[in-house]
From TrEMBL, chain A:
SMART domains xref list: Ald_Xan_dh_C
Origin: domain of life: Bacteria
Domain called Aldehyde oxidase/xanthine dehydrogenase a/b hammerhead: residue spans: 212-301
Enzyme class of the recorded protein, top EC level: oxidoreductase
InterPro entries cross-referenced by the UniProt entry: Ald_Oxase/Xan_DH_a/b, AldOxase/xan_DH_MoCoBD1, AldOxase/xan_DH_MoCoBD2, AldOxase/xan_DH_Mopterin-bd_sf, N-heterocyclic_Hydroxylase, OxRdtase_Mopterin-bd_su_IorB, TAT_signal
Keyword Isomerase: no
Stored SUPFAM superfamilies: Molybdenum cofactor-binding domain (SSF56003)
GO molecular function, one term: aldehyde dehydrogenase (quinone) activity
EC number: 1.2.5.2
Keywords recorded for this protein, A-Z: Oxidoreductase
Protein's name according to its UniProt entry: Membrane-bound aldehyde dehydrogenase [pyrroloquinoline-quinone]
Lineage of the organism: Bacteria, Pseudomonadati, Planctomycetota, Planctomycetia, Planctomycetia incertae sedis
UniProtKB/TrEMBL annotation, chain B:
Any GO MF annotation of the entry: isoquinoline 1-oxidoreductase activity
Domain 2Fe-2S ferredoxin-type: 2-77
InterPro entries: 2Fe-2S-bd (IPR002888), 2Fe-2S-bd_dom_sf (IPR036884), 2Fe-2S_ferredoxin-like_sf (IPR036010), 2Fe-2S_ferredoxin-type (IPR001041), 2Fe2S_fd_BS (IPR006058), Beta-grasp_dom_sf (IPR012675), Diverse_Oxidoreductases (IPR051452)
Keyword Repeat recorded: no
PANTHER family: BLR6218 PROTEIN (PTHR44379:SF2), OXIDOREDUCTASE WITH IRON-SULFUR SUBUNIT (PTHR44379)
Protein name: Isoquinoline 1-oxidoreductase subunit alpha
Top-rank EC class of the record's enzyme: oxidoreductase
Protein keywords: 2Fe-2S, Iron, Iron-sulfur, Metal-binding, Oxidoreductase
EC number: 1.3.99.16
Entry keyword annotation includes rRNA processing: no
Gene: iorA
CDD domains: fer2 (cd00207)
Amino acid sequence: MGSSLNIGAPVTRRGFLASLAAGSLVLAARVSPASTLLAVVGQDGSDTAFEPNLWLSIDPSGAVTIVTHRSEMGTGIRTSLPMVVADELEADWARVTLRQAIGDARYGDQNTDGSRSVRQFYEVMRVAGAAARTLLERAAAEIWGVDAAECKARLHEVHHAATGRSIGFGELVARARTLEAPAEGELTFKTPAERRYVGQPVPIVDLADMVTGRATFGIDARREGQLFAVVARSPVLGAPLKSVDDTAAREVAGVVDVLTIPGYEGVHGFQPLGGVAVLANSTWAAIAGRKALKLEWGESDNDSYDSEAFEREMVATSRRAGTSWRTAGDTAAAFEAADEGSVHEADYYVPLLAHASMEPPAAVAEVTVDEDGKAIRCEAWAATQNPQAAQEQVAATLGLELADVIVNVTLLGGGFGRKSKPDYVAEAAWLSRATRRPVHVTWTREDDIRHDYYHTVAAVHMRAAVDERGMPTAWLQRSVFPPIFSTFAPGMTSPSDFELALGFTDVPYVLPNLTVESGDAPAHVRIGWLRSVAHIYHALAVCSFPDELARRAGRDPYEYLMELLGEDRLLDLEGVQYPNQGESLERYPFDVGRLKAVTKRVAQMAGWGRELPKGKGLGIACHRSFLSYYATVVEVDVDRRGALTIPKVWSVLDAGLILNPDRVRAQMEGATAFGASLALHGEITAVDGAIQQSNFHDYKVARMYDSPRAIECEIVSSEALPGGVGETGVPPFAPALCNAIAAATGVRVRRLPISKTDLRWS
Amino acid sequence: MPKLTINGEPVELTDLDPRTPLLWVLRDSLNLTGTKFGCGIAQCGACTVHVNGTAMRSCSVAIGSLEGREVTTIEGLSPDGSHPVQKAWAQMNVPQCGYCQTGQIMSAAALIASNPEPDDDAIDSFMGGNICRCGTYPRIRAAILSAAQEARQ
């Protein structure tokens, strides 16, 4: 198995075709829910009338090349999707090479976020593999003069069982490339039992490079003659640059130039923030030069932003009537009818969070300019989750056509949503045009923590009236947060149906009188999306509150939760604005039975119900996100001084069809640590509009010693349509941990991070 | 200017401020990009290298302090990825995004060199300086135990 990250020759259509050995079979596929188009492509690519979203080639030596178009940031997707092609093709995985695609709308969606790569592209990969196999089988049939139905591909050869003959894929290429691509209806697919790679723990293609230091990330991309740049940005969002004194900066050894990047226009979106760039012959010289800058910034509307005061305002908003999103029965009347003593309220809060991927944002850009210094072309190499957005932003920043911007995708040292926003790629492009040299921009950790597209701060108010068994007779939940769309629309303060559908409007409990509302909040920093997005604060509230009600009623939280989930059924979301990740509820219903099944299984695995001494406890939470079902039990150990450790976590995932169980397991393990980081430590604060944290000493993340020591994961074996994996394990972790702390100590944590709460007990 | 060896090769660093951190010399001057930048203040371990066999955060080691020292980076840990720690890492599919893993591997190699039989607490303590945002910690632990066992044989 080989791979290349095309540092050098980009995988444009022409570039890809030109790079193949003469006489290769090239198959182009375009698969959408509406139609499937396949074509055998000539070497010049001129005979594809359609715009394929997958390329697959087999050269006369038998080498298979697959263009992989999703970004690799640790999920293994760069390996897992091509596995599907190779499996249906009956290719020998050792003879498959991957080429990473550039950003190009013809590949379809390339924004690698939302846990949707498998869901959206499994079918494309399967069809392409099956079509290529069909071509090879038909070519063999022609050569042998037998019926194609008697010819079967097996491990890079086509076999004719009746005569015992076989021909290698490479030898079939010359004939196969003269054939018409099969029509969709002519394709057959493997049965689960026939699968060779899908469902197997195939190692990622980049493994050997990663353990030897050869793996190339955006920060490692190098172009001949490049300058290294860092940028000083305004401490408060939107503050204009008033004055620059770069005298001392220019005297720093190695500094080549100091340039002012203009601030963004209108709403920031993915535009560069603007600021003062120091360009040097090494990153270190650029950093040292930046330290020597004397800058003055002007006033901003965000100068008065204080996260403590803002928290109080948000909590107050969450306690006032808001915008209604889902109702059942008559909640107001049910509350009115309830005894005062039967009403329980809780306010949950999650602060701003930073992504803090281990590789900070980084990219190199090389702009070609004409005699007047006008950009005519740009090529970039970037750690980006979203190469098409990078292409669009660079084109906008430089005033270029999309076709004149090539964005190559390196490996990503983590992404978590930050690297879907390509502002840093546009910074590099702007600086390359200005200097007429390739420019590499690195964000230092301080830049990353202080100028992130933050996971939004949120306050969620929960209120229920309960009957004598503790079951809710009335239920109100209200979510308040500065919305993601504030990054794209000026002055946007209202949450969208998209954000509320992330674990809030779809509360799956049996609630005869239900009101789901939202409240408005303005953004004072750039708001983005972080692994599992609004599920983080919604799951904290929706999965902690039943635990509170159970304990209040003196009932077992697991038994209570299962009763609250009710009968196995498809959740009725009739009349609710519920985007469901862009899928219909017919294809991907909210199946409460599947949610209950993972919950039941995880409780069994954890030995739920066993007696534990004070200070130790189990907490449970279950949550559907990204069309998959996840349940977690956390065991916590809190000593009398309040020091907390997590000896063990159990998790069960039902994500439908699984491509690579080892990588799925890795995502489950990783989600646990990611959940531990945000639950235990994560908090970004602001004073006078400026972010107070700067690096890992004051924005702490989970380390080996405070992560769960043991993690036991189970994946439901299923042939259901594939759901998301990468984010699904994050949401239930924090509430399961908070529920465990309540069990261990009686202390209920409703405000993250947990480190801010005194957990001492006696 | 200091004379030192990097991965066994003698290196003379000229035209560089002696206060320059080793990390940036490796990455930007010598193009040894396997050593990663993560924080710049010795908080995350992504830049871990060996100096005379001891794990050091190269972002916080000035090159002026390295006269006569032997520096080993991930590129020099083994010629072909065959160090017991690298083998265990590959066998257990430890990396996710892979970015912090070179620093993790350099720390782990130093750990088992100094403590051939590390227990869970020793691993927690020694590896606590290396952050992984992907959360590969359970596999790192398992890989260290496995590599230590292999190294002892």
